[in-house]
Structures are given as structure tokens and as C-alpha cells.
Design a protein that fits this description.
With about 180 residues, the protein is an alpha/beta fold. The protein has two domains: about 55 residues, no CATH class; about 110 residues, no CATH class. The protein contains five helices and five strands, in the order αααβββαβαβ. It has a five-stranded mixed β-sheet.
């Protein structure tokens, strides 16, 4: 609001061809710069808090308190949905031995109702070789890489759930719907 008042005052002075004293002009410029810097500082503080809140959504095991405790859950997590980026999870790929895709798993804390999504890259050896050649990668490293001999939805889900239970140090319950709208076992 003070910035708007300053701008209106300057516009009024200009339209009346009033000479603004140099000292007044420098004070106005200084005030505008200070207001701008304060606004940026406040925005950066808000962004830092948002980043810290975002980190809570992707907790990993640490040497301190258990991930489940930091999440505020004691009753476990609920897997509410899962799907692949490119592949229909129900039918699978055309060649079960040549597969690479991202598995998205939506989780919910049963107590706080907080939700988030985990991503696991799932591949067969042949599918991994194909994607590495296509992307011209010499190596691949990652904690969220699941390698299976062949595409098998049950094996992939069982392994992914075991991995999530280890990461979050809680039991993961499968409820809700799978990719084909059938109840998750």
C-alpha cells in the first residue's frame, strides 16, 4: 500500500510538472528497494518451510527416531493405489522378459490422513539393457530400482510393499483399488 501511495504521488508530481527534491526521490527509491528485499526474504522463508514440509512426505530410514514415529503413525500405512507410467499393470507388457517402467504407489497415513507417492523403477534385465542403450547410459544407480526376472504383478507388488515397510518401518496395508478397479488383495 505505501508503494502504491508513493507511485501515485510521483505521478501527481509529474503531471503537475512539480520538481521533486533529490533527497525525497532518493528516500523513495531506498524505501522501494527495502520493501522489495523484505518481500523476497519473506517469500524465501515461506519456500524453506514448504521444502521442509515436502521432505516429510518422502521420509527414509535414519539413525534417529523411526520413520513411522516422525510420520506420526503407529497403525501403519495404507497403499491406496498403484499404477505404471506406461504399462497397464493388469495386462503387463507384450514381452514379460523385456520390461522397464515406473511404478507409482500412493500411500496414506491412517492416523494423520497425510498422503504421498513413492516411485520405484521396475525392470527386467533385458528391459534395463534396452533402456540403457536407448538413453545411452553407461551405468545406473538408485535405491528405488527393482529388478525382476519377468514381469509378474504379484511379485512386483509384494517386493515393493516389503521395501516400503522397511523404509517406513511400519506395516503397509493394501486397501482400495488397483489399476483395473478391482479390490487390492
Amino acid at each position: 500500500m505505501p508503494l502504491l501511495a508513493c507511485c501515485l504521488w510521483l505521478a501527481a508530481c509529474y503531471s503537475q510538472k512539480t520538481v521533486i527534491p533529490a533527497n525525497t526521490l532518493w528516500v523513495l527509491i531506498f524505501a522501494i528497494v527495502v520493501l522489495y528485499l523484505v518481500a523476497r526474504w519473506v517469500r524465501s522463508k515461506t519456500a524453506t518451510e514448504d521444502e521442509q514440509n515436502e521432505q516429510v512426505r518422502y521420509l527414509v530410514r535414519s539413525s534417529g527416531a523411526g520413520a513411522a514415529e516422525r510420520l506420526g503413525t503407529k497403525g501403519g500405512l495404507i497403499l491406496s493405489r498403484y499404477y505404471f507410467r506406461e504399462t497397464d499393470a493388469e495386462t503387463g507388457p507384450p514381452d514379460a522378459a523385456d520390461f522397464y517402467d515406473e511404478l507409482f504407489i500412493d500411500l496414506r497415513d491412517s492416523e494423520s490422513e497425510q498422503t504421498w507417492q513413492n516411485t520405484i523403477h521396475v525392470a527386467t534385465p533385458r528391459g534395463l539393457e534396452r533402456i540403457m542403450a536407448a538413453e545411452r547410459w553407461d551405468s545406473v544407480i538408485g535405491t528405488e530400482l527393482l529388478i525382476v526376472r519377468r514381469y509378474d504383478r504379484e511379485t512386483i507388488l509384494r517386493t515393493a510393499i516389503e521395501h516400503l515397510q522397511e523404509i517406513y518401518e511400519v506395516r503397509v496395508q493394501m486397501v482400495g483399488k488397483g489399476p483395473s478397479s478391482e479390490p487390492i488383495a
